[in-house]
Design goal:
Blueprint (H helix, E strand, L loop, with lengths): L1 E6 L9 E9 L15 E2 L2 H13 L4 E8 L10 H7 L4 E3 L2 H10 L6 E8 L8 H7 L1 H10 L1
Parallel strand pairs: 1-6, 2-4, 4-5
Antiparallel strand pairs: 1-5, 2-3, 2-6
Length: 146
Amino acid sequence: RIGSCGALKENVHLRDIIIAQGACTDSHFAHQYELPGTYSAISSYELLEKAVAEAKKKDASYHVGNIISSDIFYHADSSCAAKWASMGCLGVEMEAYALFATAAYLNKKALTILTVSDSLVSNEITSSEEREKTFTSMMEIALEIA
């Protein structure tokens, strides 16, 4: 998956790339698997390693780590983003957890590569035109490893 996300950390800036190693969630998506605990959704290490190598080749500004996949676009709890950031989450988006869990269930490989479109720390945002014209690095990385 490629897409946009919001930054949760001060050192993650607009247009930086986040390569998701894992995804937390505030949803109950994994409940369908009837597991006797909490499922940790992670990416394919093989794809992750290839994406990092491509990001380095492109000299892209990137981060590797955990993200939060949230069902809620505008959270009523204004401290929610800071709580996830305090646990090390780099960014917030909506699909990676379900992608990683589904891939694991089907014994497939999955990876999420994101470009930061806005910051929940600095409140900076990119325009739709900027997103259209400047988010190509994540696409190029994904195409190289596909």
